[in-house]
Amino acid sequence: MEFFERFAVPHPSPAIYASMVAIVLVTVGIIVGLTYFKLWGYLWREWLTTVDHKKIAIMYLISAIAMLFRGGVDAIMMRAQLAQPENTLLDAQHYNEIFTTHGLVMIIFMAMPFIMAFMNLLVPLQIGARDVAFPRLNALSFWLFFVGAMLLNISFVIGGSPDAGWTSYFPLAGNEFSESVGTNYYMFALQISGLGTLITGINFITTILLFRAPGMTLMKMPMFTWSALTANVIIVFAFPVLTIALLMGTMDRLFMTNFFTTTNGGMDMLWANFFWVWGHPEVYILILPAFGIYSEIIATFSQRNLYGHKSMVASMVIISLLSFLVWTHHFFTMGQGALTNSIFSITTMAIAVPTGVKIFNWLFTLWKGKITISTPMLYTLLFIPIFTIGGVTGVMLGMSAADYQYHNTMFLVAHFHMVIIPGVVFAMLAGLHYYWPKFFNFMLNDKLGKIEAWVISMSTLLAFMPMFFSGLDGQARRMYTYSESTGFTIYNMISFVGAIGLAIGFVLLVYNVYHSTRYATRNIPSDPWNARSLEWATHTPIPEYNFAIVPTVDSTEAFWDAKENGHVLYRESYSKIHMPNNSGMPFIIGCIFFVWGFSFVFALWIPVIISTIGIFACLVHRSLEKDHGRYIEVEEIKKIEQAAGARR
Fold it and tell me: Which PROSITE patterns match (predicted)?
């Protein structure tokens, strides 16, 4: 029994046992359903082996929505625990695990795949390309992300969840204080998914720089593509830091090295520096593409070209540079000295300037625009004031002397959520409604969408505004209970009501998807919003090859100018199109990486060796494989285009 005891949950509870039963039942249900409807072949051909950027985008999107609800359950449990003083819904250990996994799931396994979904769908379309530069690497990126997410999500039923916070500070994350394998799961889930993200960064930088349509200079690229480029440059520079930090942390836990220990020459603050050198740029990896989505929506529903295109690009470049110069503001109170604090306080406030430029450019675009309030536009308009609250409180936190009052309180929690929820989640929901026709070939219900937007936005204020006040009154974050005499009860009860409101809002989103899937017409135009950039020049549904003829670009809003000003987009004749073949290798490598990570978590060295050999064997096989893709002939292209034209 000693061997099997290693896989037991160290702190079981009825919720954990219920989760085990649910996982088994859902898994059995999926297997039975696929078998009954004879869908195994379809699943393998169309999804598990696909290298089509549009299908990969859908897989990212579905994963992100699933993780949104997974992390949302954790959030509801935390707010329920704190709704009353000295509550016993969760014990201290379970609460530690929940706030750790909530942060990890929402940042790494919800927000990141949401961003990747839109990048995968939009970047090739916006630059007039037929696919990304490296389609198989793109598929591998998804599967590495996915197995990393699954590795983290099995932790709470096999071996125990990580419990040292989403930042996993040492020495708390060391073996002395985190004896279970939970932190091992943290290290390997992030390592595997981070590798996939790094590959994505390289892939999309290459795609944007080399695969743009004729005439599309860098300054003629749409704003979302610019935001994707800057975000992926940050990825390429930031994620290797995380990779090395995780490697060092893993060696401390498994091989008793002393990189981050408090004895034998170790330095626990080294982890904090490494983590935030990655962690603060990570915020802008999320925010910049979200800003790109808002830019596209504002221009479309104002029926105006985006004000200050060059200044918007410049502000994103400046933000990407400054993002690497502010990391120390995360530990102003940890003893690095007044001079260092002053320098990083200045850089922290400086980064607010290019962000403000973007806000004013959006407002100037709206000014005198012919504004249409659709669901995407409503989310965008609600984002601006709520995000501004988050931004202003960020400047408050950037004052190093004042941070001694704010640090490690609920004020900080409120600030972070008032930035990320309107700045990223609202953008993803706005983009979801805006681009749903390109994802799934029908539109979401606009009336339901507006109700959902108002419920989510008002609930966000209700959930997090009270935390500013309880934080200023001294309520510490990460505390699982408090005394009634503190006076925090009313703030936490209001926050709990807000959290319930957020849950209702996301349930409305699910109902909207269900209702629209069942009742929405499939006979929609390719450009239902009267949009401005090239992704709307494609058919609905989008053909495998995206563009039968690669467009030629003369301006920053090529599609709009083609519709309104007579620019000619397609100046060539049909010719055969080269496309990559599907491949099962990315999925297989992903599965082997799952075994590799799981084996490392439990120090199962023989499976580690076998899976490592398997990974390298797959790489060698790919290196020796002769697969030159395939061609879609002109006659087939004409048939597809004629059928699409008839639908329009």
Answer: COX1 (PS50855), COX1_CUB (PS00077)
**Given the structure tokens 């407002």, which residue do they identify?**
363
Provide the whole-model pTM.
Answer: 0.96
Rounded Cα gap, residues 344 and 339, in angstroms: 9
CA dist., res. 128 & res. 550, Å (int): 6
Contact between 143 and 216 under an 8 Å Cβ cutoff? The reply is no
Phi-psi region of 265 (alpha: psi -120 to 50; beta: other; left: phi over 0): left
- Phi first, then psi, for residue 378 (nearest 5°) are -65, -45
The HSE-up count of residue 313 (CA atoms within 13 Å, CB side) is 12
Coil/strand/helix, residue 583: coil
CA-based nearest residue to 15, from 103, 90, 96: 90
Tokens of 426: 């609202």
Exposure letters 59-72 (e unless 16+ CB within 10 A, then b): bbbebbbbbbebbb
On whether the CB atoms of residues 324 and 256 are closer than 8 A, the answer is no
Say which residues have a Cβ less than 8 Å from residue 309's Cβ, sequence separation at least 6. Answer: 219, 223, 556
Give residue-wise pLDDT tens across range 453-505.
999 999 999 999 999 999 999 999 999 999 999 999 999 999 999 999 999 99
DSSP 341-354: HHHHHHHHHHTHHH
- Record the tokens describing residue 475, joined without a space: 């309520």
End-to-end CA distance of the chain: 65
Compute the C-alpha angle 187/188/189, nearest 5°.
100
Residue type, 231: A
How many residues in total does the chain contain?
648
> Which residues, in sequence order, are CB contacts of 151 under 8 Å at separation 6+?
185, 188, 189, 192, 594, 597, 598, 601
The secondary structure of residue 175, as a DSSP letter, is: T
Q: Do the bridges between strand 577-579 and strand 630-632 make them parallel or antiparallel, or are there none, so unpaired?
A: antiparallel
211 backbone dihedrals φ, ψ, rounded to 5°: -115, 15
Are 376 and 297 a contacting pair, CB within 8 Å?
yes
Which position has the token pair 């290459």? Answer: 206
What rounded mean pLDDT belongs to the chain?
93
Angle between helices 112-126 and 53-82 (to 10 degrees): 150
Q: Output the six-digit token pair for 548.
A: 């039968």
d(CA 233, CA 204): 9
Q: What is the pLDDT of residues 27-43, one digit of tens each?
A: 899 999 999 999 999 99
Taking a C-beta distance cutoff of 8 angstroms, is the pair 463, 418 a contact?
A: no
Instruction: Kindly report, residue by residue over 245-296, the tens digit of the pLDDT.
Output: 999 999 999 999 999 998 888 999 999 999 999 999 999 999 999 999 999 9
Q: % helix / strand / coil in the chain, to the nearest 5?
A: 70, 0, 30
List C-alpha distances in Å: 154 to 159, 186, 250, 438.
9, 11, 19, 33
Q: Are 559 and 534 in contact (CB under 8 A)?
A: yes
* pLDDT beyond 70 at 1: no
DSSP secondary structure of 219-276: GGS-HHHHHHHHHHHHHHHHHHHHHHHHHHHHHHHHH---SS-SSTT--HHHHHHHHH
Contact 167, 257 (CB under 8 A): no
Question: Which tokens is 23 given?
Answer: 């996982």
Query: Nearest 5°: phi and psi at 409?
Result: -115, 175
Q: Count, in order, helices (H) and strands (E) of the chain.
A: 23, 2
Name the residue among 451, 581, 463 with its Cα closest to residue 506.
451
Taking alpha carbons only, the member of 325, 315, 110, 132 closest to residue 227 is 315
Token pair recorded at residue 184 = 């091992």
